Amino acid sequence: MKAGPSSSLGTPCLRRLARLSAYIEREVPSPARESIRRHMAHCADCRVVLRTLKKTIALCRQAPKIDPPQAVSKRVLAVLRRELARCRPPAP
Question: What is the CATH number of the domain that holds 69?
């Protein structure tokens, strides 16, 4: 079975990919941008991830903005409140 691109990514790739959204949005400082750009020139797997992320962002921006049904919003908020309560440290 052939492995996908993400299975062959090493630590240098993962460090750069963690900043990929910021790179696309031009929120990464110039020296880091250049480092990412040089890496992309030599890493086919990371170029695939970059192209895919750019397409995903474009599709999300084109998607119609709709409000979810009120019942869905209430369920999501309830789950978030439970998770937040679980993550808070106990009161002293």
Answer: 1.10.10
- Rounded CA-CA distance 1/42 in Å is 25
pTM above threshold 0.85: no
Tokens standing for residue 47: 């170029």
Q: Is residue 16 part of a domain?
A: yes
How far CA 27 is from CA of 13, 46, 48, 87, in Å, comes to 18, 19, 21, 30
3-state secondary structure of 27: coil
Looking from the CA of 84 toward its CB, the CA atoms found within 13 Å total 6
Tens-digit pLDDT string for the chain (92 aa): 334 444 456 677 887 788 888 999 999 999 989 989 999 999 999 999 999 999 999 999 999 988 999 999 999 999 999 999 888 776 66
User: How many structural domains are present in the chain?
Assistant: 1
Rounded Cα gap, residues 43 and 16, in angstroms: 11
